[in-house]
Amino acid sequence: MKQPTTVNPPTELLAPYACDPAHSRGRLHAEPASPTRTEFQRDRDRIIHSTAFRRLQYKTQVFIYHEGDHYRTRLTHTLEVSQLARALARSLRVDEDLAEAVALAHDLGHPPFGHAGERALDRVMAPFGGFDHNAQSLRAVTQLERRYAEFDGLNLSWEAVEGIVKHNGPLIDAGGNAIGAYAKSGVPEPILDYNTEQELGLHLHAGIEAQAAALADDIAYNSHDTDDGLRAGLFEIAELEEAVPFLRQIVAEVRERYPGLERNRLIHETTRRVITRLVEDALTESTRRVASLAPRSPADVRAAGHQLVAFSEDMTAALRDLRAFLFARMYRHSRVKRVMDEAEQAVERIFAELLARPDRLPAEWAHACEATDRTHRARIVADYIAGMTDRFAMIEHRRLFDETPELR
């Protein structure tokens, strides 16, 4: 019987600056190649089959899962990001599977209740190194998934791990100083610790596939949070038109083509055009940047000194207007803020109780806390909480305190 051979994309169709799965830098723990999948396809499949990925179904994007069946969850958001990442990668002639893998993994570290849960964990973990969802995504794929006989984590390729850690850009400058989102707080310890095992080039940009995943995230959450906010009645289309000229133009086009269109269809037609404009702008600007740099290898992309996958200046300004509107009218809306404030308090209470009483953790977690110092115990408790879904966090709160937050 003829043995199957490793499936590789037709490399002649990939751009020279694409990450080539046939020339991956490998995995932390060496494994035989798959006879039927490329290295990056294997990464994607392992992420999809992970426990952390399944938990995203019941983790908050903006609205608590029980507020409505049609609002985005962390899982549906992730699927939308992965679709957009593949589309961008395909148009840029780079590896779609790697872009998809990074997109699928980018939110694995989010705790319950979205950014509210992250804020709460970061506060209580401040004496113990803080909490960062990007660093937690790294922990999920390198340590916390305990499924395989020969290693902890998913043992992803170097390129996938690099993309998860650096998809938003370098973490340090050439001198080793933290930059960007970590300029004040410093690079999270879990990332620095892992970097001593498998050097990720934290001062360089990620490969172009990871950059595509990062921009896909921007496209997805800006357009779909707008859609969810409108459908939830947090603001009206007229308010968007007044505050965001970019949206005003698109809504006007829809109304001109479809006079008297009902509200739900107007929202959808507007949202799909927003996504199209963002994708088209990103491809135009990214193609221009690639042509200007003319990279001949993935190394050229990493050393470019700036993102190659990006929006134009005009679109960046338009998105700045939209984000400001969403922050004021959605993320800080009294209805959303009230629920999230209560969620933060619930997370803080659970953390404090389990840190003080690690014997109340499930057996395997309680065992891990034995013979450890307080800092290590705090990280274990944070890992446990970060893995919770929204509904499991409320169940745990009831188990620990005989009460369940309403969060409505």
From TrEMBL:
Gene Ontology biological process terms in this record: dGTP catabolic process
Molecular-function annotations in GO: dGTPase activity
Domain of life: Bacteria
Keywords for this protein: Hydrolase
SUPFAM superfamilies: HD-domain/PDEase-like
SMART domains registered for this protein in UniProt: HDc
NCBIfam families reported in the protein's UniProt record: dGTP_triPase (TIGR01353), PRK01286.1-1 (NF002326), PRK01286.1-3 (NF002328)
Family from the record: Belongs to the dGTPase family. Type 2 subfamily.
Protein name, UniProt field: Deoxyguanosinetriphosphate triphosphohydrolase-like protein
